[in-house]
Amino acid sequence: MTTTLRIGTRGSQLALWQARWVQAAIIRLRPDLSVELVIIKTQGDKILDVPLAQVGGKGLFVKEIEEALLDRRVDLAVHSMKDMPAEIPPGLTIGAIPLRENPLDVLICSRAATLQTLPPGARVGTSSLRRAAQIQYLRPDATIVALRGNLDTRLRKLACSDLDAIVLAAAGLLRLGLGERISAYLQPEQMLPAVGQGALCIESRAQDPATQAVLAQLDHPETRIAVTAERAFMNKLQGGCQVPLAAHAQLRDGRLHMQGLVAELDGRRILRAEAQGAPTTAEAIGHGLAEELLAQGADDILERLRQNAG
Q1: What's phi and psi for 39, nearest 5 deg?
Q2: pLDDT for the residue numbered 50
Q3: Backbone conformation region of residue 253, classed left if phi is above 0, alpha if psi is from -120 to 50, else beta
Q4: Residue 62's pLDDT is what?
Q5: Which of these, 60, 80, 66, lies nearest to 195 by C-alpha position?
Q6: What is the mean pLDDT of each run of 10 residues along the chain (310 residues)?
Q7: CA dist 256 to 252, 269, 279, Å?
Q8: Could you give the C-alpha distances from 79 to 56, 60, 72, 93, 168, in angstroms and in order?
Q9: In contact, 188 and 249? CB cutoff 8 Å
Q10: Phi and psi at residue 230, to the nearest 5°
Q11: Among 11, 23, 194, 253, which has the minimal tally of Cβ within 10 Å of its Cβ?
């Protein structure tokens, strides 16, 4: 290993917070190393006026950074796990998944305390088909308003527009010290989180054992088990941002408990299922949960959505 490690990251406020957190953690472990940040603009950062589902979905925020990693312009990359496609490019590996932040979605609004108490016909901002479908299932009267941009941009849009509320991931707000903005945490029974939400993905080259040895010390085994199950679920369903699917797994009392769902775009139909098993079978639990939803009819929903997207 060289004496300098270069971290590839997006340039948003949240992405930089995450990269600096990893930078500080590595320096604590290896004070002999110099750790630098390299800011890389991704396609998702450039296209801000089109919904994610219409411009390719997952991979929009990672592809250019992964290319820099493969080209050896950076030595590791820090992503939000929920931005990661199901397939990792050949030559790369997930070197570490640190301890997960709160995985829930949250409601931010000024005129109500909960999703249920929003006014009739409330205008709710979100960029996520998953969130939109679950909001409309709970509040069919709500109007979903497409909302793009990084976290601080979306918060400004709430203050400067006719939106009644926005829905964001708790993790980003908590990491940036903005927890006081949260009006309500949306429990999984209301809003099942995205695959990997709240977790970081630290990616490295597969043939870089020295860097991998450093990153292994940042890995949180319980978080990796949960995320492995969730990503197996997504992989089985071939899910991305064009598909309203969700999954959340957690370890309780030595067992891995998992929930998953697939929804119609308008939220009129949501298929849900649960599974549990030994943590050592995380991938099989994720696959099995996906198969249960396919048996319930999720394959019809997914095929129709893909045809429409194509």
Answers
A1: -85, 130
A2: 55
A3: left
A4: 93
A5: 80
A6: 88 96 97 97 66 59 94 97 93 98 94 88 92 96 89 84 92 96 95 98 97 97 98 88 88 97 94 98 98 94 76
A7: 6, 27, 5
A8: 17, 11, 17, 13, 17
A9: no
A10: -65, -40
A11: 253
pLDDT of residue 149: 80
Token reading at 2: 């060289």
Name the residue among 60, 37, 40, 59 with its Cα closest to residue 50. Answer: 60
Mind telling me the catalytic residues?
83
**Separation of alpha carbons 284 and 218, rounded Å:** 25
- What is the spatial distance between Cα 169 and Cα 101, in angstroms, rounded to a whole number? 10
- Give pTM, 2 decimals: 0.92
Q: What pLDDT does 118 receive?
A: 93
| Domains, the chain, ordered by start | 4-97+199-219 (3.40.190.10), 105-186 (3.40.190.10), 233-309 (3.30.160.40)
Q: Is the dihedral of CA 186, 263, 308, 61 positive or negative?
A: positive
| CA proximity to 65, closest of 83, 48, 52, 78 | 78
Length of the chain: 310
Both tokens assigned to 187: 């429990």
Contacts of 104 (CB under 8 A, 6+ apart): 169, 170, 185, 186, 187, 188, 191, 193, 197, 198
| CA gap 41, 44 in Å, rounded | 8
